[in-house]
TrEMBL record:
UniProt KW keywords: Membrane, Transmembrane, Transmembrane helix
One GO term of the biological process aspect: lipid metabolic process
Biased composition (Polar residues): 338-349
Name the record gives this protein: Wax synthase domain-containing protein
Molecular-function GO terms, alphabetical: O-acyltransferase activity
Lineage: Eukaryota, Fungi, Dikarya, Basidiomycota, Ustilaginomycotina
Bias kind Basic and acidic residues: ranges: 366-377
InterPro entries: Wax_synthase (IPR044851)
Region called Disordered, residue ranges: 297-377
Keyword Manganese: no
Domain of life where this protein originates: Eukaryota
Amino acid sequence: MAALLQDKVERFFGRFSPMPQYSRLGFKLLDSDPVLDVSRKLGFKVVEYDLPPYPLYKAGVGSIQMLSFIFGSGIVAYFLYHNVAKKSAAGKWFSILFLITALMTWPLLDPMSGVMLIDFWKPALGFRSSLLVWDIFQIRSVPEVESWGFARFFAQLWTFPKELDEIEERTREEGYARNPRIENIKGMPKVAVEAVALLVTLYFIPPYELTKDMSQLAYHCYCDALGLSILMALALFGDGLLKALGILINVEMADMFENPLGTTNIRLFWSHWNRAIATVLHRVVFGGGKSKTRLKKAKAAAAAEAEQKRRHLDQLSETDAGHTSGEDEDKNGRRSRTSSGLRPLSQLNGDAKLVHRKPNGSGPQKETETTASAKKDAAKSKGSFLPKAVAAIVTFAMSGIFHEHITYFTLGFANGENFLFFLANGVATVTATWFKRTFPEANARIPTLVSVLMLHVFFLAVIPLFCSPFIRSGFFIQLEALKYELLPIRARPRGSFVYLFGK
């Protein structure tokens, strides 16, 4: 009790002493940075440099202005949908064009503040929400949108909520409805881990001046570290703010990322990376994407239809697969294996090679209609790859344009590097998918470890196209200053860099 009282007294009087004893957040100040101390002991070279203090006041004012625009535009969009867009086609197109124009010109109307984190979110959110305007007003059905209250409408326009049909499917499976606020709170420990990971990765982001004397391989590796830092920053500020807002408006939010670093190929990586933008791009480019639940139902319905068609064709064939396969039906209509132990012909090679047998059972005689149909379907599936590939390239190209839009209004320039990065990833994704479809057996023989290494070697090669603009502009160096506003360290510069590969 006495120690606690003494600590409170020291904290109180420490506020009036010439040298502060506690940070702005109330933590007792450390004499040195423990991460840098450990790095030095391990033999790594450490560079410390001073930076201007983080513009906290500007960040606070900018955040209030940004939130005001977000909530105000949400109210305007809700009014336009229910009072203008539904009444006529002209009203709908007026609403769409007005809202998209307002969202895309938002960074122009509210110029750069100098707080790059705030300046980043304005074009990023504006571009994404302009796509969501098209999704809400043009792609989704009127009954679906009319079923939303304002909170859900606002969430669909500005956040990344879990789709209602997914929630309904989960409720049916579990037998009870989960509380949206509690589900959002459950995600907060993950957000805390992402915050710590972001602070750690910032130690390995080099200032632009220090990159000039680096080897090309070292620079690529530091860019890879910056990619990890970007992942943590997006996850922290994206998931953290989204779930906090979800708690406020009582709407369950989906996760922006699904462990992209745990994937084994490039297609899976991008389907798990930043799902908040990937899903809306997919809906717009592919003419209206479906949620996971709808896709699952559609696949189940297609499988049932294919099974019904197969059975119908089997009954039309000269040999009934059900009674020549070594199985008989009992009095309850169930099939049982006969003493011959043969598997049903309908199961051979996934139903794709169902064949007639010669009367003496010596071998295949000719293909049935099922085989012909399967080959026709396979040919049709392969033939449809080209338009899907083009659509995938267009999706990646739009993502590249999206990021060029962000860099222009955040960093003050856009030189096409981000566009080339996403275009290269689009080509790589289509190529990998083509190889898997064309040579499935060879693809299946690639060991998982080799697949992961190939993925990360590719990223290591192209990652500077994505990261170089952020390094040249000092985006994450400014976050360094914010980091040292938060860390309780007494005397320290506001920037530090740990060489991982030597100077």
